[in-house]
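Posted in: Structural Biology > Protein-Ligand Complexes

Title: Requesting predicted complex, zinc ion in pocket

I'd be grateful if someone could produce the C-alpha cells for the following input. Sequence and ligand are given below.
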Amino acid sequence: MSQGFSGGCLCGAVRYQSSIDPQIVGHCYCVDCRKSSGTTHCTHIVIPEDAFAVSGEVKFYDHPADSGNIVARGFCSVCGSPSYSKNSGMPGMIFPRASSLDAPEIAKPQMIVYASRAPSWEIMDLALPAFATMPEGGPQEVVDG
Ligand SMILES: [Zn+2]
Ligand SMILES: [Zn+2]
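-- Reply #1 --
Done. Output follows.
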C-alpha cells in the first residue's frame, strides 16, 4: 500500500505532498546536479505529476541537459533550497529531490547515473547499478529490468 510522502524547503515556504510512494530513486552525478546540490550529486525521486501537490512560491531555473531536454530546477525563492525538477523529455513526471523530504528513509536509491562525472574521491554504493551517463531507455528501463 502506498503511503505517499511529503517534503519542503528549509524555511517552510515551499511544501509538497505526494499521494504515492517513490517509483524510481537514483543518484545523478551530472555537472548540473553537482553544481545545484551543495555536494557531489543529486538524489532524485520520480513520480507522476498528478500525484504531486505543491504550495508556496517555487522559482525555476531552466538549463539544457546533455540530451538537449530542458531541466527546470525548482527552488524556494526565500531560502534557495532545491525542492523538485521537471524535464521536458519526460512530460507528466516530476522529480522531487530526496534532500527535501521530511522523512528521507522512503527514498532508497536504486541506481546511479552519470557515474563517470563523479570525483575520484566519491564513495559510491557498489551494490547499485551504475551508468557512465544516462542509461539507454532512461531510468524507467533500469527499474523495470
Ligand atoms: Zn524556503
Ligand atoms: Zn543530474
